[in-house]
UniProtKB/TrEMBL annotation:
The gene is pfkA. This is 6-phosphofructokinase. PANTHER family: ATP-DEPENDENT 6-PHOSPHOFRUCTOKINASE, PHOSPHOFRUCTOKINASE. Its cofactor is Mg(2+). InterPro entries: ATP_PFK, ATP_PFK_prok-type, Phosphofructokinase_CS, Phosphofructokinase_dom, PKF_sf. It catalyses: beta-D-fructose 6-phosphate + ATP = beta-D-fructose 1,6-bisphosphate + ADP + H(+). It comes from Pseudoalteromonas haloplanktis.
Length: 322
């Protein structure tokens, strides 16, 4: 095995709080191993366009606490085609890149597998997405921060909802995963939580809301990927209880911004260090993650979408939302 002298790192898919902390951690570790690190700008787009910058540890230290990604990110359609992939390989060869670290979600990891069909360059994935929808890690970068942001927004909505005895339906992100909905809903004391992983939650909501005529707010948290969707849920609520004073809030992209929480920064620091060490130890085609509070490597082809809300979480939902 040739020693690694030059690592390229990119952030891809939706930005997530903690990506900048991970960049700092990667460069700090690489520096100690005498490895140069280049940042690829705008995800796989930068690999196609040969858009690289040398990463400097001191500058990254100054931005490690910020949300977003200083490298920029993209959802690159060009990379999915043969022409884009071949240009990406040309960039790797032209810059003598020995290894690649990709920080992103499951789509970005499918991109890694796609690239690995035409090159043997070692690569490691770091799970970075607010959705927490990846197997092989208990948490992804950005999830904890997004949950905290959503929880605080729902707390604020509760103040006004209580004052008016209103019912609020609040949509949170997560694509087709109900993790943000489950965590944000439970931690803000929601009366009802609707997620894509459950078909029964709408029945519990309808039962509860048809009796609602109280001196209190009623908070419904809905994951954006829920099979019924906010509009139809509101129609159902108004049908079963027409006297309800109903309002809707979609939290949207504000959930993705903001400085990473301490938990996300620690996760980023651990996974950043571990990713460089894994490459130096000859690992490749792995996603680094945290399982049962230990760093772990999962083969990239096993990193499927994590759709399952586990039994314990299901149990919590049934205690608080029935
Ligand atoms: N099947 C695939 N083949 C090749 N490249 C892919 C594939 N799927 C995704 N990619 C590449 O990875 C990029 C990021 O994927 P995607 O937009 O799904 O975000 P993600 O990594 O899942 O992050 P997030 O969870 O934040 O959405 C895509 O824009 C594309 O360039
Ligand atoms: O910013 P975009 O491209 O609209 O993507 C939004 C999606 O990205 C995420 O924020 C992260 O994957 C999802 O929760 C959401 O569905």
């Amino acid at each position: 095995m040739q020693p690694i002298k030059h690592i390229a790192v990119l952030t891809s898919g939706g930005d997530a709080p903690g990506m900048n902390t991970a960049l700092f951690s990667i460069v700090k570790t690489a520096q100690q191993h005498g490895i140069k690190v280049s940042g690829v700008r705008k995800g796989f787009e930068g690999l196609i366009d040969n858009d690289l910058v040398t990463l400097d540890c001191k500058s990254l230290q100054q931005t490690m606490h910020l949300g977003g990604t200083v490298l920029k990110t993209a959802r690159s359609e060009r990379f999915r085609g043969d022409a884009g992939r071949n240009l990406a390989l040309a960039t790797i060869e032209h810059n003598s890149i020995d290894a690649l670290i990709v920080i992103g979600g499951d789509g970005s990891f499918r991109g890694c597998l796609w690239l690995s069909q035409i090159t043997n360059i070692p690569y490691i994935g770091i799970p970075g997405t607010i959705d927490n929808d990846i197997a092989g890690t208990d948490y992804t970068l950005g999830f904890d921060t997004a949950v905290n942001t959503s929880m605080q927004c729902i707390d604020n909505i509760r103040d006004t909802a209580e004052s008016h005895n209103r019912v609020f339906v609040i949509e949170v992100m997560g694509r087709d995963s109900g993790y943000i909905g489950t965590y944000a809903g439970l931690t803000s004391g929601a009366d009802s939580i609707l997620i894509p992983e459950s078909d029964e939650d709408i029945t519990y909501l309808v039962n509860k809301i048809s009796d609602y005529h109280s001196e209190h707010a009623f908070i419904v948290v809905v994951s954006e990927g829920d099979e019924i969707g906010v509009e139809h849920i509101c129609e159902k609520i108004s049908t079963v209880n027409p006297s309800i004073d109903l309002r809707v809030t979609k939290l949207g992209h504000l959930q993705r911004g903001g400085n990473p929480s301490a938990a996300d920064r620690m996760l980023a620091i651990r996974l950043g260090v571990h990713s460089v060490k894994a490459l130096c130890a000859g690992e490749s085609a792995k996603m680094v993650g945290i399982l049962n509070n230990k760093v772990s490597n999962t083969p990239m082809q096993d990193v499927a979408k994590q759709h399952v809300i586990n039994e314990e979480l299901q149990g919590l939902l049934s205690v608080f939302c029935r």
